[in-house]
Structures are given as structure tokens and as C-alpha cells.
Amino acid sequence: MNTAVFILLAYLLGSIAFGIIVSRAFGLPDPRTVGSGNPGATNVLRSGKKLAAVLTLLGDAAKGWLPVWLAQVYGLAPEVVCWIALAVFLGHLYPVFYRFKGGKGVATAVGILLAFSPALAGLALLSWLAVFALTRFSSLAALTAAALAPGFAWLLLPQVGYIIVVFVLSLLLIWRHRSNIRKLLDGTEAGFGKKP
After folding, report:
1. Contact predicate 194/136, CB 8 Å
2. What is the pTM assigned to this prediction?
3. Per-residue pLDDT tens over the stretch 68-109
4. Cα separations (Å) of 178 from 38, 44, 56, 69, 167?
5. In 3-state terms, what secondary structure has residue 76?
6. Cβ within 8 Å of residue 90, ≥6 positions away
7. pLDDT in tens, 110-125
8. Domain locations in the chain as residue ranges
9. Distance from the CA of 48 to the CA of which of 5, 35, 181, 194 falls in 20 to 30 A?
């Protein structure tokens, strides 16, 4: 398959918002109309439907994993795999199907990390779980995992290109959480089990 076509398809796959699709299937409010306005699993969970949130999480992670995994299976050059990883992630952040207004990319990033290295994804996920268990702030957990991921990648990944991609993903994740950072600093961030 032509490299440019593969990259475009990865972007289009990334543009599929599982939070919106799952919410419609369950008859739930559009996740963009509640909480942070983000069409991700955390906002879907605020609807009270845990299954819908889990399906959103799995869908967003799977779409990050699939194109990167396929690119590796087809033996594409590492630099092409890197562009595919960035394309699917940017598709999630800036989806063509939703006027370029997408999610923050946590689950999709985990899917990409899983394709790069299960150990890398596991460490990032453990970081998220540990911080969330202690603070009940999903945003703080995501920010911590994003900050630690490049270090984990440096230790685990042999390809420099993959390490650079993880660094870029982390920067984009932190950028997408800038409103959450402001709320965390001024004490108005809403955590699970906490009142804003």
C-alpha cells in the first residue's frame, strides 16, 4: 500500500470518536455537552454508564494500536511507522469528522504505546492508575503518565524515532490538558468523588 495512503487512513481512523458513537448507541447525552466537553471515556463515565465508558476507552485505544501494529506487521520502515502513529493521534485530537474538535488523546496514546512496546504501555498505565488512586483526578493522572512516558520510552525502545514520537505525544497530551492544569492550580478541577 502507498505510504501516503496508509498515513491518511490512519488519520481517518483516528478521527472516529468512539465516545460519541457509543453514547449515541446507549442513548446517552453527547459527551461533548458535559464535564470538560471532551468526547473521551472520562466524560462518558460521568453519564453513569460504566460499560459505555469502557467501550469508549477500548475503542479509542484500539484505533491507536491497530494502524501502528499493522504498519509493523507489513514491515514498513520505522520512520513510516512513526508518521502513522502521529497521524492516528492527530486524527483523534483534530478529527475531520467533527470539525477538528476532538479528545485529549490519553487512550489513543496508550494504544500507540502498546503497539510500540507492551511494557511501555504497561508502565504508563500503572503510572496513571497510581496517581488516580491517590488523587481521584483523571487529568492529573494523565499529565503524570505523559510526563513519565518519554523516560520509559528512552529505557525500553531501541528506535530513536519511536522515542521522539512518544515525546511528541506527551507534549501534545500536556498541551491538550492546559485547561485542566489551570483548574488543578486554582483548585477548581473536578475529580471523581470530589466536588469542583
Report:
1. yes
2. 0.92
3. 999 999 999 999 999 999 999 999 999 999 889 898 999 999
4. 13, 20, 23, 30, 17
5. coil
6. 11, 14
7. 999 999 999 999 999 9
8. 3-186
9. 181
